[in-house]
Amino acid sequence: MVGLSIGEKYFIQGGIAQDLRTDGRKRLSPRPIFVETGNISQSNGSARVRIGATEVIASVKAELGRPSALHPDKGKVSINVDCSPTAAPMFEGRGGEELSSELSVALQRCLLGGKSGSGAGIDLSSLAIVEGKICWDLYIEGLVVSSDGNLLDALGAAIKAALSNTGIPRVNVAAGASGDEQPEVDISDEEFLQFDTSKVPVIVTLTKVGRHYIVDATSEEESQMSLAVSISVNRQGNICGLTKRGGAGLDPSVILDMISVALSVSERLINTLDSQRAAAEAGKDEL
Amino acid sequence: MEFVSPEGLRLDGRRPMEMRQIRAEIGVVAKADGSAMFEMGNTKVVAAVYGPREVQNRSQQLNANALVRCEYTMANFSTGDRMRKPKGDRRSTEISLVIRQTMEECILTNLMPRSQIDIFVQVLQADGGTRSACINAATLALADAGIPMRDIVTSCSAGYLNSTPLLDLNYIEDSAGGTDVTLGIMPKLDKVTLLQMDAKLSLDTFENVMQLAIEGCKAVADYIREILLENTKQLQYRRGT
Questions:
Q1: Looking at CA atoms only, how far is residue B204 from chain A in angstroms?
Q2: Which residue in chain B has the smallest CA separation from A57?
Q3: Which residue in the set A53, A57, A89 is minimally distant from B124, CB to CB?
Q4: Does the distance separating the beta carbons of B118 and A92 come in below 8 Å?
Q5: In chain A, what are the domains?
Q6: Which residues does the UniProt record annotate as the domain Exoribonuclease phosphorolytic (chain A) (predicted)?
Q7: Domains, chain B
Q8: Regarding beta strands B191-198 and A128-130, do their DSSP bridges make them parallel or antiparallel, or are they unpaired?
Q9: How much is the mean pLDDT over chain A?
Q10: In Å, what is the CA distance from A157 to each residue of A198, A220, B8?
């Protein structure tokens, strides 16, 4: 919990009103973001993202499973977030569960689309192997190691980076299985399929403090917010999901304004993520 | 199964008395009062220390000593197979207790009465020896938080497989069913603070295995001292003296 005096609160609010925040940033400038991929060797793909003092880890595990009866041609993806007590003592025991589920649901809404899986940022049909019989189940796990605000954006970026790092083994299906039989599959140890992550959205959260809204709020700034709108946008400029947190009301025209701002911010964010990924891959090739 | 090849090499290519590569980093969690990351081969843990601070739950307050609390959590992705474990299962509760007791012993709790020190350890990757790695990380985090301690506590495990004493077991060797001795020592005072062992062993072999674990702990202690010294030099440099 952030404990601030009245003077500090006024300082933060006043700074935001004058477009100069406590760490010297402007209202719409984010903190630098650092991405590191492939650091959890037990999973199919993983990434660690650091934004200021916020640090999150995302890991992707792929398992073979049965597609649901309603959508036989699609795989399944589940997103789960955990808040480690290392990030804040209040997450100890069951203390982090409320925030964890809030983040998980927001991420599901922003990345997985509707219940039917339509409009999902992750292409679910690419996870199908044999229609109605076998598909890949992706388990995306997020972990908040250190928290200094803007967790949702960090988790969104980490998941995107982890998915681009994910290698799904190539599967050979033995021919000849027919009818209700479960076909035999052979999972390759050597060949991996890269996941197409060009359509996976990033999340931009705009936090409203006073009369203005800011991007990439720190936890001090978040303690002063009246509301926050998280907008997930992909490279094509489509809005993939929206979540509003906080109780205060918002003028509909302001929402449209926020979305257009989020579009321009997300474009920069996607470019940063892509260039970091390219740099990391180039670094690996040299080794 | 053969855990030591005729050439005297283990499954991961180590010699019986060889430790996995250890790596440590101080100050990984910016918001905590003290924090550290500790790696032993593929095992990777993060520890964060909050405190000494006001006691959160007044009924637990001790008038003569500081209250030391510890929580051990494993990330869902830390193990090879994916499983959802409820928070606070028996294993984590036991490890939390073990870490708490070990660390409490070395902290000078009498200097900070009516206050509370929280130690949180988070396992990011588990490949055997998480208990030892957690204790080593907690020691570093406590030192980083500037909490007065009698001595550092370091820990290392040793086992006995194929009638060979092995140092620093990994997950495969750990789950092979042989003996597993986890030892924690305070190297300067030369005292054992933690000793856990399962499976049976003759007295003579136990002596050998324990001696091996002590050697391991001392090697870890040397490394931890080096890291702490390096960190202190950095702090001194930043201060400009």
A1: 38
A2: B124
A3: A57
A4: yes
A5: 6-286 (3.30.230.70)
A6: 31-169, 200-264
A7: 22-239 (3.30.230.70)
A8: unpaired
A9: 87
A10: 13, 22, 46
Average pLDDT over residues A142-150: 93
* Higher pLDDT, residue A190 or B67: B67
Q: With 90 as the cut, is the pLDDT of residue A71 above it?
A: no
Report whether pLDDT(A283) > 80: no
Interface confidence, given as ipTM, is: 0.88
Closest-CA residue of chain B to A2: B31
A148 to chain B: closest CA residue:
B31
A contacts of B48 (beta carbons < 8 Å): 85-87
Element (H, E) at B122: strand B115-125
Supply B15's token pair. Answer: 């010699």
Apex CA A234: angle with CA A252 and CA A74, to 5°?
110
Cβ of B87 and A80 within 8 Å? no
Q: Do B124 and A40 touch (CB under 8 A)?
A: yes
Residue B43 pLDDT more than 90?
yes
CB contact under 8 A, B122 and A145: yes
Which of A116-130, B41-55, B135-149 comes out lowest in average pLDDT?
A116-130
pLDDT at A281 over 60: yes
The pLDDT of residue A95: 85
Q: Kindly identify which residue of chain B lies nearest to residue A48, measuring between CA atoms.
A: B124
Above pLDDT 70, what percent of chain B?
Answer: 97
Tens digits of residue pLDDT in B75-100? 988 887 766 666 668 889 999 999 99
Which pTM was predicted? 0.91
A85 neighbourhood in chain B, CB within 8 Å: 48, 71, 73, 118, 120, 122
Q: Which residues of A touch B32 (CB under 8 A)?
A: 86, 146
**Which of A185, A220, A225, A186 is CA-nearest to residue A206?**
A225
Please list every residue in chain B whose beta carbon sits closer than 8 Å to the beta carbon of residue A64: none
Q: Is there a contact between A63 and B88 if contact means CB atoms under 8 Å apart?
A: no
pLDDT at residue A226 greater than cutoff 70: yes
User: pLDDT at position A266, please?
Assistant: 93
